Amino acid sequence: MILLVLSTLLYIFLALILQWAIYRRFSLVTFVLIFFLVVFSFNVFIFEILGLLHLLDSILLFFLLQVIVCSSTGFFFIRKSKFQITELFSSLSSHIKKLHRIDFVLLGIMTLILGGFFAVGISTPPNNTDSLAVHLPRIYYWLQHGSFVNWPATNLAQLFYPINGNIQGMWLFLLAGKETLFFLVSWSSLGVILVSTYAIARNLKFNITSSLVSALVILSFP
Fold it and tell me: Which of 16-20, 92-96, 205-209 is predicted least confidently?
């Protein structure tokens, strides 16, 4: 679990650097989107390298590669953008001041709903048919055999389903060793959908409150 926390902190810091390099200001919306893309893409990149070496189950090698890739990328953008953490926090403070009371209420409602989903997910091991028949077996097979090479699977979907989403589950399980964390892949994706909905509404010139309502409507869908 400690390695998973450290791995996540590395991605958070890199996402902050990339956001500053691209936008020169802090926005929670863009940070969430950049962080999600960083985690998703870098995990795929690192695990593909380990898969070629037949070392998917190597925890220390994964973490070492992550440190190298994140550090080199971060150092490159720090030099290019003159990254300053103090300016990020001042930008965050000014962003919060723009919110009204109703906005905090809407954010509170969505936080409670997402918190409820989180509580259920963290306390319940995977138990649906799709996970047990396809997603979990392929993750365990990859880790047991150290590569993405195909095998005589009893369910062909284990072989031809896209693998990038399951790679995120493998990252969670490899570094933390807990099945109850698999839900974070879909849970975080839901959060990104809400943030994306808000961002789209803002780009369509909706005000903050209307954009938050749009995200809440999406969250109400089954």
Answer: 92-96
Q: How many CB atoms lie within 10 A of CB 191?
A: 16
pTM listed for this prediction? 0.88
**Cβ contact 114:168 at 8 Å:** no
Question: How many CB atoms neighbour CB 100 within 10 A?
Answer: 11
List CB contacts of 66: < 8 A, sequence separation 6 or more. Answer: 7, 10, 42, 46
In this structure, what is the dihedral angle of CA atoms 211, 212, 213, 217, given to the nearest 10 degrees?
100
Q: What is the rounded distance in angstroms from the CA atom of residue 170 to the CA atom of residue 28?
A: 27
CB within 8 A of 120, min separation 6: which ones?
A: none
CA angle 130–111–173, rounded 5-degree value: 40
The amino acid sitting at 38 is V
Q: Are 99 and 168 in contact (CB under 8 A)?
A: no
How far, in whole angstroms, is CA 135 from its chain's centroid? 18
Residue type, 83: F
Query: Which two structure tokens, joined as six digits, stand for 97?
Result: 């001041």
Q: Tell me: the pLDDT tens digits for 100-111?
A: 788 899 999 999
Q: Which residue has the tokens 């693998």?
A: 163
| Residue 80 pLDDT | 72
25: tokens are 């200001």
Largest CA distance in the chain: 58
Q: What spatial distance separates the first Cα and last Cα of the chain, rounded to whole Å? A: 32
